[in-house]
Amino acid sequence: MSTIDYLMQGFSISFLWYNLLFAFLGVLLGTVVGVLPGIGPMSGVALLIPITASITSSLGLSNEASATSAIILLAGVYYGAMYGGSTTSILLNTPGESSSVVTALDGYQMAKQGRAGSALSIAAIGSFIGGIVTLIALIFLAEPLSNVALKFSSVEYFSLMILGLCAISGLAGGSMIKALIMTVLGLLLATIGTDQFSGVERFTFGVLSLSDGIAFLTLAVGLFAVGEVFKTIMNEDPQDIQIAKIHRLYPTKDEFKQSVAPIARGSVLGFFIGILPGAGAILASFFSYVMEKKISKHPEQFGHGAIAGVAGPETANNAASGGAMIPLLTLGIPSSGTAAILMGALIMYNVQPGPLLFSEHPTVAWGLIASMFIGNVMLLILNLPLVKVFAQVIKTPARYLLPIILAISVFGVYSSQNTLMDLWILLVCGLLGVWFAKHDYPVAPLVLSVILGPMMEANLGRSLNASEGSWWVFVNPSTHPISLFFVTVAALWIAVPLLLKLRGKAVLVNEEG
To answer: Pick the residue with more confidence: 60 or 512?
Structure first.
């Protein structure tokens, strides 16, 4: 079958009534998640994993169909949240999630000038175009990348996973040292359970329920959803919220003309940044804003209501979320924390993302891609007329919202794992999530390490067995040049920022001297 045939098969799956419903629920809930400050796509996706599992099982779907429906809903939450964050950034100067911080710079200024409708419309249009562009690229890149990855041995896979961990550690948070600490902590947590080579239990301390390791679902929901609940309880600062008035919903002809080029540039920039491990939507929106300001004929307007400062970053962050799907689906390497959680959800359904996904589980892969086209259209149609409704969501009192999130977390984890030990782990992870946030320890490297840890261990074991214990196999240019390339890039990803930082300190000392 050709790529177009597979895509048509994907559309036939995504047009099933329950998958259409899941796509609609995903983008709707994703928009709400994006609107609510502090929750973000990672917390939203983690929170909804157990609910999605319960719904699909109640429909009596097969494992393959359940995995397809679940990932359709969760992916909808992911890219829906990318748009939802722009609503409160523009109307309230309160970013719903981190990638919308840049949007607030000019979006809120436009709202104060009575141009809130123009900013919201351009954000919606840009998000839609950015999402569609990356999906088209995904369709044509998926099969070639999968074919290349099929030629990888365990050596190349291990090196690729090292690159993924180094990349996300090098770009996560303000301190690389803290990010690396979280990466190592995640790898340590991944060793809990039964050794896959010897069958010996490790670090279980005689607790039977830990023989399979710490459940990814428990860890993710605890760190993100429960952690956010605890953090909000401890840091809540109630204040009166004033929503900017929307006088005219659609942009003028001149505003639309000014947005065309930034939307086009944001689509391309966001796509390529989204592919990079560890980069994600935050970097995409920031780089887009900087680029638009640099090439603008009127850079002095940025920060004072320049519509290019909304169009470019909003397009870029949605394009980045679509771009993140390419390494996730074709290589099995998540390029962001949210993509890592999506990968963990697929693994829960015994569907392994990677080069074999398109041959072994084509209905999951192509059903997801087709549903993302539908979801982006739903997102555009849904958000423009309901933007005032979504803006009111932020006024939901915490005394109602927090208990609901906590109850969903507890019942979801317990129904999935059926052990009290997981509830204790959930509580501990929630408290750790608060501590990590307070001390600026990024959680994304930890989550990615926990997911990749078992696969890294398996590929490392196979590689060393084949090479009779020689570590040279990973950097041998004659037998594994691709592995050498991955290891070199991984080393540079960590070393270059450290060297630049040391150089900056040396320059500062010389100037003071």
So the answer is: 60
In this prediction, residue 254 has a pLDDT band, given cuts at 50, 70 and 90, of: confident
Spatial separation of the C-alpha atoms in residues 238 and 297, rounded to whole Å:
41
Locate 427 and state its tokens.
């509580």
Across-strand partners of 194? Answer: 201
For residues 203 and 225, the answer to whether their CB atoms sit within 8 Å is no
Q: What does the CA dihedral 414, 415, 419, 423 come to, rounded to 10 degrees? A: -10
Q: How far apart are CA 348 and CA 354, in angstroms?
A: 15
The alpha carbon of 7 is separated from its chain's Cα centroid by a whole number of angstroms, namely 24
The model's pTM: 0.71
Return the beta strands (E) in 187-330 as ranges.
Answer: 193-194, 201-202
Closest CA to 107 of 95, 119, 122: 119
Which residue(s) pair with 201 in the sheet?
Answer: 194
Cα distance between residue 59 and residue 479, in whole Å: 50
Q: How many angstroms separate the Cα of 465 from the Cα of each of 159, 460, 489?
A: 16, 8, 25
Question: What confidence tens digit (pLDDT) does each residue in 316-327 have?
Answer: 888 887 777 888
Quote the Cα angle for 277-359-164, to 5°: 15
CA 69 to CA 321: how far, in whole Å?
19
What pLDDT does residue 287 have? 79
Say if residues 158 and 459 touch (Cβ distance below 8 Å): yes
**Cα dihedral across residues 411, 416, 421, 422: positive or negative:** negative
Rounded Cα distance between 352 and 174, Å, is 32
Phi then psi for residue 295, to 5 deg, are -90, -5
How far is the C-alpha of 486 from the C-alpha of 159, rounded, in Å? 6
Q: Within the chain, what is the greatest distance between any pair of CA atoms?
A: 73
- Amino acid at the residue 454: P
Q: Give the per-residue pLDDT at 124.
A: 84
The span from the CA of 408 to the CA of 412, in Å, is 6
Q: How far apart, in whole angstroms, are the C-alpha atoms of residue 6 and residue 20?
A: 18
The answer to whether the CB of 49 falls within 8 A of the CB of 221 is yes
Reading the block at residue 434, the tokens are: 């608060």
